[in-house]
DNA sequence: GAGATATACAAACGATCGGTCGTTAATATA
DNA sequence: TATATTAACGACCGATCGTTTGTATATCTC
């Protein structure tokens, strides 16, 4: 027997803790998040964390892992329902916008907070977060290449270049919507990518007009 | 007499402290920055800070002010040397790229770190940083409008929309260059804005080809 | 049922946090 | 020259940081 109530309960609370950690980290970052506050938020004691993780960094690494899974399920997976090509590319962008506007995470985007926090802080967390960004950009880039292969994007497009643009225009919505002009940021972030794709697409009717 | 050695020395050390604070905050944020480490970095005692500022938040606010001045002098002012219109708009973008690639600040961009840190943290610092972002976007928007008035940008352009795109494509260079692909981020960030402007400009010869 | 294992906790650790207090020495004001 | 004022400091405050230790207890293995 490996289905044991004790370990199962451990796994459940482990997941609950990680969910809270990702949620809080989207607001105050993974370092800004303190074990004391995380304990309060989860209704446990902070010493209990050390039954699950060796130290704070291990918890942070697992939180990144959890956030990657969440992002994959909520943003990447839905986009795969759209037909490959330029429509899937825009579906990916819209899934991201929905993730933000739905308020899935109180801070908007876990990766925005954490990457800004760790881009200058060498260590395991930085490496893990860097890999997450590389994988994400790689996925966008592959969708661009596939759209080109399908003849749905101009042949002169540089996939890495366009992937950078799509990511940058999407990511900065988080900051602008919270710090500057609220809903207008979503309009700008959506339209920027949409018009860029339409301009590069031989058959713009594949995409909404606006 | 108001030119007094004592107060002058105070002003000098005040400026030196703020410069260090902005520098450190570009790496670890304005909250991540602790008074103890700032004291070590400046070779002073942390209790000395309270001769200049009432509390940490006042120091943070002055640090933002200092960073705004630095940004204005190093990025905004040089762009004004270029002729108004689309050339000035691109000169502004290039001045920003130079600010990043020259390594003026060890963390790349003070505002990127601090805005990501405070976008979800209500208070005076958030308000001040929000205003800085508003002013910066307003400046870009005015340059767009001026370029349109000069007939150097397509009449269908929405200035706020284009300002968002220019800022987003420039800002994310900081993150990508540090966390992902180094120099390639500069190429992507530069080319994205350049090609966007060229596509909207009736006379692309005003801008470099690549 | 016995013994090992694992979850979770309270209490406490040294370090560091932002901040206070009282003092010293240099300068400004009179 | 006498008197405020000021920059700057060392010592210390309570709170919180991440972490360690020891313990109680529920579950799993045998």
Task: Tag the structure with descriptive keywords.
homodimer, mainly alpha, Tetracycline Repressor, domain 2, 73% helix, DNA-binding, HTH_TetR (chains A, B)
Q: Your description of this structure?
A:
- Two copies of one chain form a homodimer.
- The first copy, chain A, is mainly alpha-helical and 210 residues long.
- Chain A has one domain (55-206): Tetracycline Repressor, domain 2 (Orthogonal Bundle).
- Chain A has nine helices and no strands.
- Chain A has helices spanning 5-32, 35-42, 49-52, 56-79, 86-101, 110-118, 124-149, 159-179, 183-200.
- In chain A, helix 1 (5-32) crosses helix 6 (110-118).
- Chain A is elongated, with a radius of gyration of 19 Å.
- The mean pLDDT of chain A is 96.
- At the A-B interface, helix 1, helix 6, helix 7, helix 8 and helix 9 of A face helix 1, helix 6, helix 7, helix 8 and helix 9 of B.
- The structure holds a DNA duplex (30 and 30 nucleotides).
